[in-house]
Amino acid sequence: MTNERLREALHSSGMTLRNVAAELAVDPKTVERWITQARRPYPRHRYRLAAILGKEESYLWPRDPVLTEPGAGNPEEVVRIYPHRSAVPVGLWRQLLDGAVKRIDLLLYAGLFLPEQHPHLLAMLRKKAAGGTRVRLLLGDPDCAAVALRGDEEGTGDSVAAKVRNALTVYTPLAGSPNICVCMHRTTLYTSIFQFDDQMLVNPHVYGLLAAYAPTLHLRRIGSGGMFETYLRSFERVWQDALPAWQ
User: Fold this and answer.
1) What gap in Å lies between CA 189 and CA 107, rounded to an integer?
2) 3-class SS at 138?
3) Which of the four, 167, 183, 192, 220, has the lowest number of CB atoms within 10 Å?
4) Cα Rg for the chain, rounded, in angstroms?
């Protein structure tokens, strides 16, 4: 188990393991173990580091992780909650993309913000896939009723369908790439899902509101069951009925 809250807090602050080690007069490997092995630092180190990062000590190192029965949610699944998707740091998207080894699964309608934020996204995905990472991208079918309805609900008319068509054009270079599957779905998109191995960004949709302005949860997988698995199952159900984007 890793301490993703501490990892994310360090990343957001711009501090490195060496910076922290110097501040606390400990070995950098000790700091690394606090993250990668979820080791609990001595109280004096916890309080000092929490103050440096501007976080509550109890948030970074919960004293009594909640033990739940199988299938129940665990508060420790939630790394952070953002008030809207556009508040998610660009660096976090890059960190999650870079860190994925086994799988990258994306469920959305268009998601043009990703290639816009990351100009080298397609090259990155191809490189990941060549190294064995499975990449699955689920885009909306621009001609389906669900996409048209989404535009009506947002009050933007045909703009959602137009964005999806643009996205399909942007992702066309991925066609035929080994370990990369791009498909279209015709489902009502209640939530956009972005999975990177055992971490996930979940963007629930709000009626009449652009997805970029809706809240986003950063989740991590802890054991079985819980919220992470709920969204994982949702992705798989949509994937089962999806069709290839290009024949």
Assistant:
1) 9
2) strand
3) 183
4) 20
